Amino acid sequence: MRKILVTGGTVFVSRYVAEYFAGKGDEVYVLNRNHYAQPDGTILIEADRHNLGDVLKQYAFDTVLDVTAYTGDDISYLLDALGNFEDYVLISSSAVYPETLPQPFTESQQTGSNKYWGAYGTNKIDAERELQKRVPDAYMLRPPYLYGPMNNVYREAFVFECADQKRKFYLPRKGDMKLQFLHVRDLCRCMEAILDKHPANHIFNVGNEQSISVRDWVEQCYRAAGRTAEYVEVYQDINQREYFSFSDYEYQLDVSRQRELIETTIPFEEGLKESYLWYRGHKDEVRRKGYIEYIDKML
């Protein structure tokens, strides 16, 4: 049994991570401001990571799983406040790779600004650099789009809503843009493997090996909802983020290094069925956006 600190713990990735490791029998502490329901089987440390004082000094953790660090300051404040710990794993992002680099992106490439991700990507770079400077043996995971149960982001939930309403789906052009995903449980499996194996590499791209076209993704989301998708192709010169969940940006991660951690990932069809079952019971937890309203008014 490990003594684990998870930052956050109340929504999507951090909540799933906390409950995953608690379910494995680990003693899991979650650090948050106690504004939402807490994950099952965990122990709350109620505090703001930007104003921790001495609240963490009494604890010695085997592992820190940092899911909610978005800037260098986020890393600094937490490290300044921590007592003893052994391992540190940061959930970073594939947004740290400039769109100008050759693809698929590899861990050895230089990070830098990406015009599609903006400050989110550069802030994640700052977080990585601060952690590498202060904890050279820390591990960092760079996932693409995450999906699965507890996802409150309006991505697959948007498609599920369209399917439930028996709507035609409005595709950007032919829908051939590719997307790369990773199920949140596979992210946890990667973290667990790091803690068990302590691999020599410390930075890992993580994700499904195969990307999926937007059209195929929508088709599988509809199928998970028990529907068959019908499409309207959109060719107007408008920002597709007005009516669709993703920017007009296609990229691919090289995830060959991930095989040091896990050999296979959850089949996409299986993962989406899990996502839909969660969505059906938690629609009020999804951060809904006005895509459908825009479609009905403008398209």
Task: Give a description of the structure.
- With 299 residues, this protein is α/β, with parallel strands linked by helices.
- The protein has two domains: 168 residues, Rossmann fold (3-Layer(aba) Sandwich), CATH 3.40.50; 99 residues, UDP-galactose 4-epimerase, domain 1 (Alpha-Beta Complex), CATH 3.90.25.10.
- It is built from eight helices and 13 strands.
- It has a seven-stranded parallel sheet, covered by helices on one side. Strands 7-10 form a two-stranded parallel sheet.
- Helix 3 links the parallel strand 5 and strand 6.
- Helix 2 packs parallel to helix 3.
- The termini are far apart.
- The mean pLDDT is 97.
Helices and strands in order, then pairings?
Layout: E1 3-7, H1 12-23, E2 27-32, E3 42-46, E4 60-66, H2 72-81, E5 84-91, H3 119-134, E6 139-142, E7 145-147, H4 156-164, E8 169-172, E9 178-179, E10 181-183, H5 184-197, E11 203-205, E12 212-213, H6 214-224, E13 231-234, H7 268-281, H8 291-298
Parallel strand pairs: 1-2, 1-4, 2-3, 4-5, 5-6, 6-11, 7-10, 8-13
Antiparallel strand pairs: 9-12
Helix pairs in contact: 1-5, 2-3, 4-6
